[in-house]
Amino acid sequence: MPLAPGTHLGPYEITTPLGAGGMGEVYRARDPQLGRDVAIKLVSSSLSRDADRLRRFEQEARAAAALNHPNILAVYQMGTHDGVPYLVSELLDGSMLRDQLLHGPMPVRKAVDYAIQTARGLAAAHEKGIVHRDLKPENLFLTRDGRIKILDFGLAKLSPQAYASEGGTTMVAEGTEPGVVLGTVGYMSPEQVRGHSTDNRTDLFSLGAILYELLTGKRAFHKPTSAETMAAILNEDPPSASQITPGTPPALQKVLQRCLEKTPEQRFHSASDLAFALEALSDSGSAPTGAFAQVASRKRWPWIVAVACGIVVLVAAAISFAPVSENPVIESVVQLTSDPNAKFGSIETDGMRVYFARGAPGSLKLAQVSVNGGQIAEVATQLNNPQIAGLSSDGSTLLILVTPYTQLENQMWLLPLPGGEGRRLSEVWVDDASMFPDGRLLYRANSNTYLAERDGSNPRKLESLSKLPAAPGISPVPGVSPDGKRLVFTDYDEKDQTSVIYEASSDGTGIHKLLKGKTQNLPGRICCGRWTADQGYLIFGGAQGGRNDLWTVSGKKRTFGKTPSPVRLTSGPLSYDYFVPSRDGKQIFAIGTQKRGELVRFDRRLHEFVPFLGGISVVDPVFSRDGQWVCYVSYPDRTLWRSRTDGSNRLQLTYPPVEVVFARISPDGKKVAFSDSNDTTYLVSAEGGTAQKLADQAIAPDWSPDGTYLVTTDFVRDSSIRGAGYYISKLVDLRTGQVSTIPGSRDKLGPWYVSEDAVIAVAADGSKFLLFNFKTQRWSDIITSPGQFTNWETSADGKYFFYSSGGNDPKIFRMKLSDRSVEEITDLKNFAGVDNPALSVSPDDSAVLTRNVGTQEVYALSVRWP
C-alpha cells in the first residue's frame, strides 16, 4: 500500500509521493539527522517475496551504493519497512532526458556534453565491474544545472518484465536467471538481442543509440514491432545522422558509427575512450554550415572593393597575431595492455614496441608490448628493481636506473635488446639520467648536471644547469630533443611555488623559460617536457586535482606575435603520469591510471589474501590498542578517517587539500598523529576538529607506549651540497614540546616503537633493521638482507615485528621480539599493491595490505596535429 505523509522509514519521514519508479513507489522524505531531503524507493511487495530476486537486488543495491561519481545517482542507504526493502538516494531536481527529447533534436554541443557526462559515469561504474545493460533516456536524469545523472545502476537488470510499449519493451532473458534484464528494445546491443554474454561495451552501444537520438530527434532503431526492431539492431545500420541533421560534424558521425558497431570488438574499448573522443570534438568545436548571404547591392560593390583593398595590409598583419585556428586534439585512445600490475617510471618506444617497468615498488620488472597492443612480455634481466631512463636512437639499448628501494640515488646501466647482460656505467650514483640520440649520457648527481660519453667516461659538468635552484620532488635532469640540439628541463620557483619548464642548447647554454605554472591557464605543477619526432610540439604534463593531464605547446614561432598558448590534450578521467611521443609523430604512448584499492588481510588458514573491512579503498589502516577502533587513509584522495572496526561510527578527520601520508592512534585512543604530503606532522582529536600543527619536516610519527612522546623521521638538507641531504630520527616530548635528535640516527628511516625503551628503524639503503635502546643510547643490527626492506610495522600488542622485502623475491616476514626468531608469512610475487603499499597489522596479528584493483595500463593516444 502507498505510504502516507508522516510515515517513518527508519529515521526518514515521508513527506510527498513522487510516483512510480520501476520496481515500486518513489517518495520524497526528510532526513532529520542531516537536515536534507532525500528520495526513497520502496520496492514492490511482489519482488520482495521472491527470495532469489531479493538476494540479487540487495547485492546490486550495495554495488550501486559503492559508486561515487557526480554523474551517477548517489545511493545513501538500504533498509527494510515491514519486510519490504527500500533505497535512500539523493533527491534530484530536473527532468528525465526523455522529457527533453519531446522537444526534438538538441544542438550538437549540448548533445555531446550530455554524452560525455554519461560516458564519465559509465567509466566509473565499469571500473567497479558494474554494467548497466538498460541504458536509455528514461534512465538518464538532467538536473536544473545541466548535470546528467545515471539512474538505477545495477537495479535495472533486476526489474520485473515491464509493460510493452512501442519500441520500448524491457526484455527479460530467456534461459538465464529469472528477472535478469537484458535491455530495452531500441537501445539493446546486438549481443543482448542474441542472448550472449555482455560487458561494458554493451553500454557503449546503448549510449551511441541515445546520442543518435539526441542529435536527430529520431531513434536509431525503431520499427513497428519489437521483433522487427531487434532484427534491425542485428542487421541494419541507421541512416547517417548528418542526413537527418545536416550540421552534424563528420568526426562526430564517425564516433557514432563506432559506438553502433555490431561486434563489440569494433566499438570503443572503454567508456573512458569514448569520453576522450567526445571531449576532443568538444574542444575542437564544429565548423559552421550553410551558404553565405548576399548583403551588398551592385551599387555598393565598388565601395566595398575599395575598402577591402585598403585593409588588406592590416588583415595580413593581423593574421600573424591571431590565435591558431586549429589546435592539436586527441582523436582516439586505445588501451594496449591489460594486466593487474602497476606501471612506473619513464616509458620508451622504438616504433615497434613500448618499454616500461611494472610491479611493486622495490620489485619492478622490465616489460614490453607491441605498439598495436597484445601480450606483455618481460625484458630478461637480472637487475633488481630496474627503471627505464632512455632508449638509443636505433632501439638496440636501454638506459636503465637500478634503484635500491629506500635510496634516493641510482646506478646507471646499459641493457642490450632484445636480450643480453647489462653493463654498469661508471660508479657514480645519480638522481636521474637521459640519453642523446648519439648515445651520450646526461645525468644529475650531487645537484650538478653532467654530460658524459656513451660508456659514462669523461663526465663534464654543465655549469649553467648546475646553478639553478633545486626543485622539491622534481629531478631537473634535461630531456634531449630528437636532433640532439636542444634540452628541456623542469625546475621550481620557490617564491611562487610553481614549476617552470626551461629550454637550453645541448651544451647547457642559452637557457630561457618556456612555460610557467599558473600562467596561460596552466596548473601550478607542470613537468617533464618531451618533443614530438619533428620537434614541432613540446608535450608535457600538468598536475591538478590529483590527476596529471597531457599538455602541448607549439615550438614554431611566427614572424609576428607570440608563440601559441599551450593546449590541454586530455582532461580525465585517466591520469597520465608518464608518456613518450611515437617515432612517426602520430601517437603518444602513455601510462594511464584510474586509482582504486582493495584492503586485504592475509588469512593464514586459507593461505591467501581476503578482503578486509569490506575491501574498502584505503591504505595504512592502524588500530587502537583495544582493537575497537581503526584509522585509515582513503585512496586515492588521501583523507584521514576513523571508525569502529565493524565499520560503524565512521568520521572524516581531514579534508582537501590536505593529503595524509601516514597516521597513528594514541595509546589512549583519544588522538591521532599524522603527517601530510608536505612532510608536516599534526595532531587531531579522534572525535574530529581542527588539526594542531606539531612539527615541520617530520614524517611518519609513532607514539611511545605511554603516549608522552612521538618519534618521527626528518630530512635534513646539506647546505654544502645543494639539494642533497640525509635522514635523522627526532623525538618530540608532547608534554613540553621539546624536540631532540636521537643519537646516531643519521641515514635511518621510520623508527617504530617496539617497547617503552626501544625503537626499530631501517637503514636508508634498505639493507638492514636496527634497534635503538634509549637506556644505553646505542644502535644494534637485528635483521640484515641482501636485498631491500620495503615496509614494516609492529603488532598492536608489541609482541611481533612485521616487515616486507623487495627485490625479485618479495616476501612478508614476522619476527618475535622476545627471542628475535623470524618466520615467513607469505611471498608477494603475485601481489599487485597500490603506490608504495604500506604494511599494516590487524588486531589478530594478520598482515594487511592494499591490493591494486584500479587500472594502470599503457595507452596509445592518436593525435591530430594542425
Could you give a quick summary of the protein structure above?
Helices cover 15% and strands 38% of the residues.
Would you spell out the secondary-structure blueprint of this structure?
Elements: E1 8-9, E2 12-20, E3 24-31, E4 36-43, H1 45-48, H2 51-66, E5 75-81, E6 84-90, E7 94-96, H3 97-101, H4 108-127, E8 140-143, E9 148-150, E10 170-172, E11 181-184, H5 190-194, H6 200-216, H7 226-235, H8 241-244, H9 250-259, H10 271-284, H11 301-319, E12 329-335, E13 343-349, E14 353-358, E15 365-370, E16 377-378, E17 386-391, E18 397-402, E19 411-416, E20 423-424, E21 432-435, E22 441-445, E23 448-452, E24 460-461, H12 463-466, E25 479-480, E26 486-493, E27 498-505, E28 512-516, E29 525-531, E30 537-544, E31 547-554, E32 567-568, E33 575-581, E34 587-594, E35 597-603, E36 608-611, E37 618-623, E38 629-634, E39 640-644, E40 651-652, E41 660-665, E42 671-676, E43 681-685, E44 692-695, E45 699-703, E46 709-717, E47 725-733, E48 739-741, E49 748-755, E50 758-763, E51 768-773, E52 778-784, E53 789-794, E54 800-805, E55 811-816, E56 821-827, E57 840-841, E58 847-852, E59 855-864
Antiparallel strand pairs: 1-2, 2-3, 3-4, 4-6, 5-6, 7-8, 8-9, 10-11, 12-59, 13-14, 14-15, 15-16, 17-18, 18-19, 19-20, 21-22, 22-23, 23-24, 25-26, 26-27, 27-28, 29-30, 30-31, 31-32, 33-34, 34-59, 35-36, 35-58, 37-38, 38-39, 39-40, 41-42, 42-43, 43-44, 45-46, 46-47, 47-48, 49-50, 50-51, 51-52, ...
